[in-house]
Design a protein that fits this description.
346 residues; alpha/beta; 9-stranded mixed β-sheet; 3-stranded antiparallel β-sheet
């Protein structure tokens, strides 16, 4: 009896092993099929642009994340392009294939497309930004002026913060709307350099630059700055400030000369104070900005051009951007490369 039981075991065990292997193979085949379907759906979603639609209500979240080039053929009623400006304004330097186009270039493109679209009669710049680099800010500012030349009316809406470069681009708008508690102003220029010489001494690293001229490595983070270099950089900062001041003076002609001089020294102030001084034309939020844009453009029932949600696309592209942005090389690059900015920092 014991011998028969021993003879049965070798017969059953291979069967169990075979069954287990088959189940495992089926499971992994199923996983691969699911992954293939998911990637196909994602690829189709990213390839086909979401259709544009117009919505009437101003209380919903609005965005201009897709192009406006096809709107002119739809025969829609005159509309308002709602363009968001969020975070630090800078040129997108991402080299990742997963990164979604963003930054000042993308914003400038949206303004340009809105300016070229015949159905768009007005643009609302929804600004929540502490500013950014000089060239990036001026790029958007120039595109707004071009859109105005093509006949578009432009209204800037200040959110929580519209300071420095965020304030600068609003100077190109026809009218400005802000909440009483908005933080704005900070008219000025800042250039920050780093010095890691002490840190490198501790870890035994020494940088030896070889340059074609004595000012080629001016602003280097690996050595102290000379007085002559500080004077040159100060002159550059003063020049870019003069450009900022000229934009404010041109955009806000009703502000008195004394207030213009006093409140362009880099200080921040509230939306209420900005309204009292003439830097802001109206207090309010989305509804007030939309209504004002409609009035300027002569639209009785303005509709806002927006796009379908891009949450899935944002999630997929943000992975590559976050990985690249967190790299040590990028962090060191930001330390070693000084930049002149219209930026409110604290």
């Amino acid at each position: 009896m014991q011998e028969q039981e021993n003879n049965v075991q070798p017969v059953e065990q291979p069967a169990q092993s075979k069954l287990s292997t088959g189940d495992s193979r089926t499971f992994w085949q199923g996983v691969l099929v699911v992954l293939f379907l998911f990637s196909s759906i994602c690829g189709l979603y990213l390839t086909v642009k979401p259709g544009m639609k117009c919505e009437k209500t101003a209380s919903k979240e609005r965005s201009m994340t897709t192009t406006l080039s096809n709107l002119s053929t739809k025969g829609d009623k005159p509309s308002v392009a709602w363009i968001k400006v969020r975070g630090v304004i800078a040129t997108d330097n991402s080299s990742s294939p997963f990164s979604r186009p963003q930054g000042a270039g993308a914003i400038a493109k949206k303004v340009r497309e809105a300016g070229e679209d015949k159905d768009v009669k007005a643009i609302v710049l929804d600004i929540n930004s502490p500013g950014g680099t000089v060239a990036a800010v001026q790029n958007i500012y120039s595109e707004i002026l071009k859109a105005k030349k093509s006949g578009k009316k432009v209204v800037a809406l200040f959110r929580d913060v519209a300071a420095s470069g965020g304030f600068y681009i609003a100077m190109a708008a026809d009218k400005i709307v802000a909440e009483p508690g908005t933080i704005t102003g900070s008219v000025g220029v800042i250039m920050q350099t780093s010095n890691v010489e002490g840190l490198f001494d501790k870890i035994g690293v020494k940088m030896v630059p070889i340059t074609s001229g004595k000012y080629k490595d001016m602003g280097s983070a690996y050595r102290p700055m000379t007085d002559a270099e500080k004077a040159l950089l100060q002159d550059m900062v003063d020049d870019t400030y003069t450009q900022f001041f000229a934009a404010v003076k041109a955009g806000r002609p009703n502000v008195s000369e004394s207030d213009l001089t006093e409140y362009t020294d880099g200080r921040v102030f509230t939306g209420q104070r900005a309204y009292n001084l003439g830097f802001v034309d109206k207090l309010g939020g989305e509804d007030e900005a939309l209504q004002l844009a409609g009035e300027l453009a002569g639209i009785k029932d303005p509709k806002i051009i927006s796009s379908k949600s891009d949450n899935l696309r944002d999630f997929i592209f943000s992975f590559g951007s976050s990985v690249e942005g967190a790299s040590l090389v990028k962090q060191l690059e930001s330390l070693a490369t000084p930049s002149v900015s219209y930026l409110w920092v604290h």
